[in-house]
Amino acid sequence: MKRDISIVVAITGASGSAYAIRLLQGLLKFNHTVDLVVSEAARQVMQHEIGIPFPSDTASESEWKSLIAGCLSDWNAKSWKLKPLETAQLAGSLRVHHSLDFSAGIASGSSETRGMVICPCSTGTLSAVSSGASANLIHRAADVHLKERRRLILVPRETPLSRITLTNMLTATDAGAVVLPAMPGYYHRPGDIADLIDFVVARICDQLQIKHDFSSRWGE
Ligand SMILES: Cc1cc2nc3c(=O)[nH]c(=O)nc-3n(C[C@H](O)[C@H](O)[C@H](O)COP(=O)(O)O)c2cc1C
What we know:
The protein contains seven helices and six strands, in the order βαβααββααβαβα. It is α/β, with parallel strands linked by helices. β5 (152-156), α6 and β6 form a beta-alpha-beta unit. α1 crosses α7 (193-208).
């Protein structure tokens, strides 16, 4: 069954683009509709971490899906132990928006969504979200999610944390966001990098209250 009300995914320029790709794989595999926005800095980080240029925002849905299905395994199949997916396995719909397209539906509270995830979330985007700046579509959509009292999950990756960043995390939490740092646990005894990535992505899916098969739960 197609799940038409979308989940917004924003990728920003913090390290950890693999988390975003795995999240997109999971959402599309379980047939969710995704509105995707990628910041300019995220494109640079992805090029560095995953080794391939991301398609332009005007690329077709199938070009994007083919990249999302294969890029992690193409790049690091042996060391990261991520199994490739077939593009056809990504059954959900994907809409990609330019990060400055303020006319996109997700820039308005009248557009229905199931929630938004910023993954990974740079300290710069965290700052913009916690101060209500709407300098790009990612900040604006996050502001919309907060004002509409919808789920907003921020996945920062930085260490150590400055007082400014800690304060911004608290402000965002007080405004209703969930701050879910990219901090994998080790109690599930990860065997490889894929296990570490999937641990974080599983916690994001739990927060979205959606079905996933990323990692087992404690006690299962
Ligand atoms: C390779 C690379 C790694 C980076 N890693 C981080 C990081 O882990 N956390 C972070 O907050 N910023 C990181 N940055 C810096 C951000 O990309 C930069 O602050 C940028 O302005 C964020 O813009 P955005 O929030 O619009 O994506 C990194 C930059 C590069 C090039």
